[in-house]
Protein 1
Amino acid sequence: MAHLTLRWRASLLVWLAGLAPCHCAFAQQPLPEQQAKAGFVFNFARYVEWPERAFASRESPLVICVLGRDVFGSALTAVEKRQIQGHPLLVRVGITTETARGCHVIFFSDSEHRRLAPILRTLGSEPILTVSDIDGFIDVGGAIGLVQGEQRLEFEINRDALDQAQLKASSNLLRLARNLANLKGRN
Amino acid sequence: MKSAAPSPLLPLVIAIALAALPGAALPQTDALDMSLEELLTAEVTAASRKAQRLNDVAAAAFIISREDIERSGATSIPEALRMAPGVQVGRLSNNRWAVSVRGFNGRFSNKLQVLMDGRSIYSPLFSGVVWEAEDTSLADIDRIEVIRGPGAAMWGANAVNGVINIVTRRARDTQGDLVELGVGTSERAFGTVRHGGQVADGFFRAWAKGFAREKSSDLAAQRANDDWQAGRVGFRADWGLASGNRLTLNGGAHMGREGDRWNIPDVTSPSGFMPTDMQQKTQGWHLVGRYEWIMPGGSDAALQMYLDYSDVDIENAVREQRTTADLDFQHRFQIGRRHDFVWGLGYRHSHDQIGAQGMIRVQPDSRNFRLLSAFVQDDITFVPDTLRLMLGARLEHNSFTGFEPQPNARLIWTPSPNHALWGAVSRAVRTPSRAELDAQVDLSAAPAHSARNPTPFPILIRNVPRADHQLSAERVTAFELGYRHQFQSGLSVDLTAFHNRYSGLRSSALGGAYPESSTVPYLLQTVVPNNDIEARTRGLELALDWRVSPEWRLQPSYSYLRIAAHATTGDPVNRMNAQAFERDAPRHQFSLRSSMSFSGQRQLDVWLRHVSKLGDADMAGNGIPAYTTMDVRYAWRPTKSLELSVVGQNLLDQRHPEFVPVLIPSETLQVERGVYLKAKWQF
């Protein structure tokens, strides 16, 4: 009969026992992915400045669109109760390239990964902030890519794409971007 | 050899694990009220990412993520592959593995295509992967995609039963420095260093790793001769050029020494063989360049080229030096919103030089292998995000068997983002290997007046190549059906059923018998390869992923496999070969992984595995008893940059065998219980 030797059992028990008291306080409850991503999208919109022509008036809404499948559900629609610089927020889901005009932020959901390049090309220099969690999003011309870090989310910025869309990102946003932080020699 | 029953300790482990879980979930903070800084430091449960990406794949795909590898405690790629359902991994020794998908396992199991960053690591000598020569820095692996079932239309010949695609991380994601050091029992010592930085508007990383592994033991629990020392260096550089064009270069070189002990057939020995300590030296290098660009009109294209050199030298037996050059082009474009086309062309040239002596002879000693391939696939959307049909075909021409068409059709219905039903019918071929075509190998010797040989002369059984050095390709027609569902509760289910029909499987038949004489007179009985086996397999693979709570994740999987093979001739060797196919893979495999995180600083991972018996479970008859084993990992992160972990492997018994070597007569060895400590420092 295969079995653990006594010595083994004892040592295994000792270190397992060491784990048991770990009812320790959880500093912070982990965030569900959709909520965290919605939080990021909302913050990106806060830290980006659109050219004046992007809004009909000072009170017209800032429109956040989800292209492709709605991956957020209620996590994103909750922003509709908020404002950014006086603009009320509006969320539109299930838009297509044809109905993308009027969006200020477009989140590309996973389902669009095959059509990224042509869609980004169609948007051209429209003042639209493009965001996605698709792998390599900024490499194909997207503005902000959400990437999975070690149990955390991080983001990367494509400055050329922002410039092309005539969007101004605050220095705070640029500083926190994973790829740009490195460029300045800080880690 | 007795079977390893689950230890009485197991319920205790589970009980403690449960006790360590937190109670009711605390109320959620609203992420919309968090600042960017807070969001960047918040721990996120990446619940759906993996599952969602898989949801619209019309194939039995499973992704082993970097986190999975880290938390499994696996120290090599084959060990990590045990996590995927439908994959059979048998560790032959501390430096050799048998890995297959959906059956037909062996050290040179030959129905699997394996790629590392687009480079095929499948050896044309054996039609298999020399796993001891293929490795990378595990911390740099982004994911391992395991696609079960024929993937030939997209991936090319030999993707008969599956494709394993090892993808490393972008250089941008591995910036800074990493040092990993470990010591242990089986894993005597190992270390990796990596540096990532920037070069000419791009990112790079360079790394080096080395390790030394202990010897395991044979069936009599005596020390074996399977120690292993290896070193490896590599780099990757990525440039994102203007307008979305990308250039990637990666390369590496490796060197290793692997011990082995062969029972070399010997007609002068009373046992019929002579145990002989062998020393294998492997070395090689590779260089891969890939350029991806966006064409006018928004279609994507990619051009990839690689050079690969490998040298496997088993002293006093066989040495293979091989140089491969490969060129691959792919173009993907959309027509309207309905058609998503991918087509590609590939050319591969492989040149070998083989020197053999003793029990192995290979003639001719040098051969060129050329492969020309073209493929096309149309992914047709009938109802957006709901119903898609994929039609694909590959046409290949190779130096060994000529033209090989390989079509497939796949249909997937995704009524909702978390619900999918798919089916596929595909055909694939496996081209014969250089060894099957040209090698002469002494298989065994039966002493005179023994149970297997009542004659007064010893008999030497020798595999000889066919006179024309020709064999046909093996063919499979596969039928698959799959279902995936992600429930709101954090549970996802992935179920696949398959039925495969094989024809022309490689076997061998009795050839002529000749009186011979060395120091003693003996009878030489030859066997000659043929394609005279047909087989049917059917199976079921179930993978569950359950987020019990944000801190606890359970991943059970179960695989069922049944193989029925028969010889199409009455030849006794043919019939024996058919029986061997039936016992090469376990009927049931069960795996349960439990991953717990405590306050982001501690992790406890438990991995329980059960593999049912191979053959008649009688060691003399080349069987392996069922075994159950468990790995445990505990990791602690005292600071943000340092992680300490202790990993116990194969804890439930002192040692157990997992597979019996065939073809090359290595002795059967046992996998031993082991513990190692590891420190990982990132800065």
Protein 2
Amino acid sequence: MAEGDYTDDYELRELMVVCGSRELRDGDLAIIGTGLPFLASTLAKRSHAPNLTIVVEGGQYDADPSHVPYTVGDSALTPGAGQTDMFSVAGVLQRGELDVGFIGGAQVDKYGNLNSTVIGDYLNPKVRLPGSGGANPISSRCKRTIIIMPQEKRRFVEEVDFITSPGYLTGPGAREEAGLLPGSGPSVLVSDMGVFRFDEETKEMYLDSYHPRAFVEEIREEVSWDLEVSPDVEETEKPTEEEIEFLRQLDSEGVFLRKEEFLRRLAREEDKFLKDS
Amino acid sequence: MEMTDEEINDKIMDMKEAVDKFVDDGDTVFIQWQSFAPIAAEHEMIRQGKEDLTLTSASLAHGGDLMVGSGCVSKVITGYLGVELVGLSHCFRRAVEEGIPQEIEVEEYANFNIQMMNLAAALGFPFTPSKNLLASDYLRKYPDTRRFKEAECPFSGEKVVLLPSLAPDVGFFQAQRADARGNVQTWGAGIEFGLFACDKVVACVEEICEEEVIRRDPDRTILPNHKVAAVVHEPWGGHPENVYGYYDIDWMWKYLATDAFSELETYEKFLDDWVYGVEDRTEYIEQYVKRFGYERLEKLKPESYYSTPVNYGYYSGEIF
């Protein structure tokens, strides 16, 4: 992509999607949830990875929905796709056939272990979160995983309150020792401040690039441990005009890219919903 | 289940009768999640004041949260409890964090594992091995809250997790169509093994059709009649979730409901209004139309999008 095509007219959520998209390779069999991962994989398929196959946990293969799916159970995912069932997706996961999956969480530690189960004590939690969904099998059985989550000190913690989705656990060799797919693990974490990768030797997360307008020291302050920074750290490659235009068209309702506004629109008939309100 | 000829050939009954007859307090109830979610059946279980239910599904979304909040659920066995785009499961949070309206037991796995546990039950096996859950805190911590064990494969020596089979007493789902004998057809989304794992299934359907229609399209019969205890004709029974070819997810309504669930007071108002305040699904839909207009409801229906009919062939047997 020529330098001149880069744009400064984008939102951080859009940049995160573009970064996620660049992590996908042509020919990947990828399990995708809704939201930013779906936008990222669709963008990849329309640009550098035309042979990417998108798999959705409801059993749809190679879906080509008429609009961006609002949920993994979206009606638009089925027409045009190969419709199997959730069970066949469980199968390709257990067999270790999926190349890549996207996951997120409320907390992450330096080995990429993720928590989407509870904040606080499991038996007496401060906040009860939705739980694994597909995240645990995806993180256990995909060859690589792409983590997307917002950058906040309280989310990037020394120790997660509950390991829902195993990253590199306690360091080198720990995944294999535990019986997870050999050679697998998180390959990248994309936040709204930078892109992080995992050291080949130590399996520890390090800062690989900082997003435009973010500073390395600022990022380190939003991490609870002493974050390693790549000696070659540089600014994240900006998105191109074409990429941003494509994403805005794909999510024309702003369901994910302008979510707050979208939810406000859903609430517009609120006064009719409950009697006496 | 002993049945007379008449009961075998005509399983059609209304929702009140089906729920009354086939759901006992203390039962483990399987509900299909999201696409084909039996929301009307869940409303009826709440109306009838069922108690001490164990609710199970790979994912428990809007309907699961609604039931947890009503107090009829004492335990969930699931992989996920959330409403995705529109938010967290507020009733589930209140139950776990504050014991409102009552404390519930949570036995959790990953969503795919529930499928495998159901498959084991559907096959009549006591357990299934799994290759995920290893190394997570699901395995390492709080062993009393779930029932699995790490083991080695006796043949290959691989590390696996053994999960118990999961056989619910009764299952509910909202399908497209069935005949009176309980041969049920769906299309558009896979049906979970949970239905085969159940002792009996109540099929709530958008349409009842002639047996001939069902027999002419054999691939689509996902549940043969011997598993089906009752057929309930319940149009719009999945609202606000989706039934392929009939209606899409009603995001506006689901968002407003989720928002109402976020406070105990408005959740209770919701129950009084949309569950206890109506007699059945027909009244519920009438209320919807009265509040939001018929056009809004119509908008949820998709345009037709047919494939070429498939040819199964008719075999006369005269091939010699």
Protein 3
Amino acid sequence: MNKDLNKTEIQVNREGELAIITLNGPETRNALDAQARIALLANVHSVMRESRVRAVILTGAAGHFCAGSDVSQATHNTIQRGRRHLTEFGDIARELLGGCKPVVSAVEGIAYEAGLSLAVACDLVVTARDARFCPVLARTDLVPDTAALWTLVRKVGSARARQLLALAREFDGQEALELGVASHLTEPGNTLEMAKDIALRMATKSPMAVAMTKAALTFRCATFGDSLQAEVDYQPLLGCSVEPHPKVQASSTWRDSQSLGAQA
Amino acid sequence: MSNQNNASVIVRNQDATAIVALNNAKCGNLFSEQMQFELTCILQQLMHEDAVRVIVLTGIGDDFCAGDDLAHVAQLIDPILLRDKAQARARLARVIWTGSKPVIAAVEGCAIGTGMALTALSDIAIGARNAVFSCTHLDTGLVPDAGLLWTLPQKIGAGKARQLMLTGEHIYGEEACRLGLLNTVCEPGKALECALDEAQRLARLPPVTLMLLKGALVNAMNSVDAAVRHEVDLNPLARTTHDHKEAVMAFMEKRKPQFRGE
């Protein structure tokens, strides 16, 4: 297939234990049309299922993260097409949030609309100081999509989420960090490097425990009672799944000899 | 605090406050199964003792709780036993989170793993500036437990909770307070003293209403309908108490109310 310069392609690079998914469509600032959406969903699914991948990074090419959905086709929208489009975006967010590997987004430049939603659906968000976030949908008479109603409220709190969504105000990386939209802040051009560092650290954790923690936080925490049941269901599976983690063995000799700092 | 008692958890009463302390100072109050059992029993009992209005949870020695005692964990492979173990932990979380009396954590030093979970489970948490918190659960191949999957996102937001759970990074008193895990940060060595001051303030509130409120907060945040339903169900009950009438009278007579928990 020839590359259409106006279309965003989804690229996946594997670097050791990391899979780096790049939204690549400089002409539209990596906006996602139907084809790109389906490709992104397929790629997120597939890296989540690769056993040698231990952490995933989501980023954009050419100095931007993602300008949202590609609205050049929006005039032909029907209700049915709209439902499909939203379901696909929702499925991507679901997989990023509840899928089995930790995901870090590296945000440079524009993260508008679905771009913002995709960024905050990741476990951690590394932003450039001058990145520009905006839940722009309110300006186009639409409600927020790609699970932003769920993720934003839970990341920044209900009051601030209401304000951001209602005003569709743009905010920069610094403010994203203060609001809780982003978890890490760095200088422009450095987000991917920082995201890799963080992802590599998370890649050392027990894959099963990571998978279950993400699933529990996403699907099993609707109430306090739910979350306790999730512990009771998951913990015994982890306890008898694999050989004891090295730390477990180390700690049996720890008690009489080492200082408390060792446990931390 | 120091003592000669060798029980895993010890209790002492001070006015209307019960101070419950994890008691294995030489191991940083490493959380053993025995400690979990004793703590659960003691808290269950205190939740029903009329003389006790507030519970302060702390650790003997320099640390609050340095994590789980993993010494015997590797030997356990029977899934039924492991499930019982997980149930016991969930019971402890339920006793604190859904119990009828406010629990205040007084945190010095390490609050690692279960130490962090106990901090997050408490209604109010007070910690020293140099107290250190970390979710080390993934490093032992386990998911965060003792209610942490619920309490941490509720207290500090979903984004930060994921970050701390997935990275295991350390945070200190000031940062924990800024995030909302701690309500108050104090100088090292002062956590228990600050917690006891706070306990005195809570002890002056009407106990029945406090109990209804704590119960309501378990599920009221699930939806706006749940929140309103709790108000509608509980306030008429609270209005029938002696303490409500006493509060109204005291307000009219410009004096301090005397609540007796009826």
Protein 4
Amino acid sequence: MRDGGDCEAAEHFLADQVMPRLLAHIGGFVIHAGAVRIGDGAAMIVGDSGLGKSTLVASLDRAGYKLIGDDALIIRPAPSGARVASVYRSLRLRPDSIAALFDRAPPSSAIADYTTKRRLDVDVEVGIERADPLIAIFFLGPPSPAVNVTPRAQSGSCVGLIANSFALDPTDLDRARSKLSGAAALAAQVPAFTLSYPRDYARLPEVRAAMLDTMKAITA
Amino acid sequence: MTDLLDRDLCPSTDVAESPVGGETVLLHLVDGVYFGLDRVGTTIWELLKAGQAPRPICHALTETYAIDLAAAEADVRAFLAELEGRGLVVVG
């Protein structure tokens, strides 16, 4: 390590890349996603990098829905329902999102030289023993003019879960089979939706309302 | 070139599958690609596994889904082309 920047980059690499893959290798279903607690359960938000997962979970957290995590989540299957927890403490936002979501910027630190995102010092409960029941999965769609929540087919949910999951060795066929059956079970158990919305900070309250309405309909 | 509907296609032995609420997700074990089948795709897949040839499958779909034969043939042809392109079905 030459300086603080290298240490931050190494820490970021270990937390974001190594730890999720190791957990996946020893049997966990670890997914690149964010989640918040809404009522008695969790809403998980899945999407490619850059689609706005962290901004949306931060927006929900600011609106009073407790942040579970914004990047790597571990899902524990159970007959009574899947549960979800954060792999590590994380809320990372670009400066423009921090400015839009916070009246006063909270303490934060640089992540690595290659990203403008900053890690915010936030209160996140980590560990599978703190896992919340997973009530709904929202797959982020590309930006759209209106806010739309549409049900997602179970096969599409299963493929989406796998596509966003971590694996230490993607060529390990036994683990690939196991992941397939795990994702299929999860997709059959938890309702999934495609969430499309304009990437406009002013429209986030509308997005949150659409998610809350969906969660209420599921738990009613 | 032979019409896909006249070829003897069957599921590749390199495919694992998992049922998901009446639908199916396929995993190609060599290249690691996952592919989701909707209910109609699942019906076609099950018939392929049962050894049915494409044209009888088209006739079966007309009865199951109340569609005309031309529509069924177009759908099955497009579906099989996608599966073949991904290596999920092969000539038996």
